[in-house]
Structure formats: structure tokens, C-alpha cells
Amino acid sequence: MYIYIYIYRERERKRCILRNDAPPLGLAGAVYTWGCGEAGKLGHGDEEPQLEPRRVAALDGRRVRCVAAGYGHSLCLTDDGCVFAWGCGAHGQCGHGGFGNEAVPRVVAALSGRHAAVLAAGGCHTLVATEEGDAFSFGRVEGGALGLGCGCVADQPLPRRIEGLTGVCVTGLAAGDGHSLALSADGDVYAWGVSAFGRLGLSSGEEQMDGKSRLSPLAVVPDPTHVTALRGVCAVAAGFAHSMAQTRQGEVYAWGCGASGRLGHGGDATWGEPKLIEALLGRSLGGGDAVCGIAAGEAHSLAGKADGRAFGWGGRLVGLGVVVGAPAAVVRSCLWLPKEYAAWLRVGAPTHWQ
């Protein structure tokens, strides 16, 4: 099952994938979706699959800045700071106050007036940060991915402020299947949720391969916790059971489940703390060759360079130019984009899909 949401570039009639980043000048702000239409996740008013990109008519007249796709729900953020959500609402992940599905985009009224700036869609939960740096979460409570503490025991169908991030100016968010990451304006990273396989980066060294984290016998961290091993971070990404961070110097760190080589460390070991991807250092020569974007999928990871190159590693990289007879455990060049797009290259890898 694949869901990709594109924003159309009107000036040059080309398409680009964006994820949690403001688009370059010239975008019309129209949203196109295709793939499986279950639960109305494509936003066309029905559950029919779409084999080709189709414009989401309900968003006509809105200038969309960024989009996010979860397992069964979709989100978008408009220029005026409004959040729209649609698709599966079984756990309240659409934020409309109920648990029903939404077949067309609908504004999250509870966030009106807060001027949202960042979005992230996890397996069954949603994260939003405002221009003021306040973070909100809603959706499935199981596993602690909402970051609302031990006192929160029920799914949240309305946005709730993450009190554990009070005093932190949140500028970036990432949502995995059962864990979440937040990035502060100071370059610090906070993690919470399921800690199995070390995906939160709060343990130390190489993790045991049985999925048991050394951090907690319950493998759950319900409150945002500072990942002290990281400093100077400018981007974060969360896969199904692994995480990534990019520093301002263009270095990339990965940790969590290492199956299929998704961490890029040359093997399938699982790491409980952030570990530098050394295979990217040889290609990071500064200037236009620095890493400018990262993404984490279910079993693979991606990094984009400012000169237009994209690199992928891990399993299930069909269509990316990487031989998949065996999982690629090291970083390999997989795509080259036109250099004129270097200034705004962003790489997207939906969490739950191949």
C-alpha cells in the first residue's frame, strides 16, 4: 500500500515531494494523492483507489505549505496556519473530537487561531507545533507516543498540549509507529513513546536483538526526554522502529532497529543511542555536497545532498535504483535530481510503506 501526497509546482509544471518543510516560491499549493483509498485517506470523498495522481478538490483555494501521511490518515498545513486532517479516525488521530473516518479534508477546529507551523503523522497519532513553539498531540495513547505522561490512559480525539515540552521552542517533529521526536530551536532532540529496539536513543551502545530496551522493562517512555547524545541538530526523522537526526554540519546519525541495514552502519545491529553514519562522511565534502534532507521509512532510510543526489540504504528499495537481492546495509547512491532543485531538495519516505 502506497500513499504519496504531492504539491504541484505551477511555474515549471513539475512535481516535488515535500515533508514538513515550506515549499519554494512558485508552488500553487495544490495537493495530489493516489494509492489505496481505504478510510478516505486520499481525501476524495470516497474509498476508491486511485492509480494516478488526483487533485484533492476539497483543498482548492487553499495554499498548502506542507503535508504528512500516517498509516491511515493524512494531514496538510496551509499558509494561514490551519491544519486539515482526513482519513482514519479510529483513535482520534484526525483531531476532530470523534473517532469516525473523514473522507474529505476537514480543518482541525481545536487548533484554530494557534497558527500551526510543523506537522507529523505517525502510525495512529498526530503531532503539531505552532509558530510559538508549542507542541500538541492527539490520537492513539497506547505506547506513550502522545507524550502526555502516565496519567493519560485514553485515546485523544482532540489536540492536547504536550506539557513535558513546556519551555522548549519546538521547531521540528517526527512520528514513528509508536514513538515521537521533537526538535528544539537550540538543536536539542527529545524522544518519547515505545523504546523497544532503542528507537528513542536513550540507552547506550548496541542493543539486544530481542527488542527489549535496557531503558525500561515496559519499554515505554510516556514523557518527552532529552536525547543528551545529540547537539546542534537541524532535522529529525522517525521510521517504524528507528530514528535519524541531521546536524547543522551535515552529519547524519541513526539509531534503533537495525534489521535490513536500515541504520546504514554496515550491518543489522540494533543501536540504543545515536550513532554517526560514517559511510556518508566520505561523500560529505562540504559546500554543495552536504546532506540537506533525511527520511526514515519502515525498513529503509534516505538522505539527500545539496547537489541533487539522494542516497538510500536498508531493505525494500525497489524503484530507487538500488539492487535489492539482499538488503543494502551501507549507504548507496540511488537517485540524481536536477541540480536546479538543490536549494529545496527534501526527501520523503512514508513510515509504513515499502
Give structural notes:
The chain is mainly beta and 354 residues long. It folds into two domains: 1-158, Methylamine Dehydrogenase, Chain H (7 Propeller); 176-354, Methylamine Dehydrogenase, Chain H (7 Propeller). The chain has no helices and 24 strands. The chain has strands spanning 3-9, 14-17, 27-35, 50-55, 64-69, 73-78, 83-87, 102-107, 116-121, 125-130, 135-139, 156-161, 170-175, 179-184, 189-194, 220-226, 233-238, 242-247, 252-256, 271-276, 291-296, 300-305, 309-314, 328-336. It has a four-stranded antiparallel β-sheet, with no helix packed on it. Strands 5-6-7-8 form a four-stranded antiparallel β-sheet, with no helix packed on it. Strands 9-10-11-12 form a four-stranded antiparallel β-sheet, with no helix packed on it. The protein is globular, with a radius of gyration of 19 Å. The protein starts with a strand and ends in an 18-residue tail after the last strand. The model is unreliable at 1-27, 208-218, 283-287, 318-330 and 336-354 (pLDDT under 50).
Concise description?
With 354 residues, the protein is mainly β. Helices cover 0% and strands 42% of the residues. It has two domains: 158 residues, Regulator of chromosome condensation 1/beta-lactamase-inhibitor protein II (Methylamine Dehydrogenase, Chain H); 179 residues, Regulator of chromosome condensation 1/beta-lactamase-inhibitor protein II (Methylamine Dehydrogenase, Chain H, 7 Propeller), CATH 2.130.10.30.
